[in-house]
Amino acid sequence: MDKFMKRAVELAFENVQNGGQPFGAVLVKDGEVVSEGVNELHIKHDISGHAELLAIRRAQEQFQTNDLSGFTMYASGAPCAMCYSAMMFAGIEKAYYCATLDDAKAVGLGKSAVIYDELQKTADARKFDMCHMEIEENMPNPMELWKERNV
């Protein structure tokens, strides 16, 4: 195990000691730690306060960019679907992790596995009900405005 993963696991262990969940993340660029995070759900009551997301937010703020191409994430546990998506949106191309989704499920932290399973289903077979509503004809369309300004 390299020093970056060791640090992610240390962060996760410390987080459990402080009342949090066993998740830590380290974001690296060119062999240097850029930012770190631990799950802060227990502190801020923010469901998006995952270790990977906090590391991403801190790096984006530090570098004033949304593009984290060339960065690598080290996470103590397999990223949930939300963190996986955020890494992809940010341009992070590689992530390493220790604990698997099955490991998390075995200790009562199985929502990630459930969400991954749900995403494999067709939209009409999912438990979460998503309902499409058309924008009314007389309302301004934000997608059209975006297209006018950016295409």
From TrEMBL:
Q: Cross-referenced PROSITE patterns, in alphabetical order?
A: CYT_DCMP_DEAMINASES_1 (PS00903), CYT_DCMP_DEAMINASES_2 (PS51747)
Q: Which Gene3D superfamilies match?
A: Cytidine Deaminase, domain 2 (3.40.140.10)
Name the UniProt key words of this record, in alphabetical order.
Metal-binding, Zinc
InterPro entries assigned: APOBEC/CMP_deaminase_Zn-bd, CMP_dCMP_dom, Cytidine_deaminase-like
Task: Give an example GO molecular function.
Answer: zinc ion binding
| Entry annotated with the keyword DNA-binding | no
Residue ranges constituting the CMP/dCMP-type deaminase domain according to the UniProt record? 1-109
Give GO BP annotations, semicolon-separated: purine nucleoside catabolic process
Q: What PANTHER family would the database entry show? A: CMP_DCMP-TYPE DEAMINASE DOMAIN-CONTAINING PROTEIN, CYTOSINE DEAMINASE FAMILY MEMBER
Protein name according to UniProt: Nucleoside deaminase
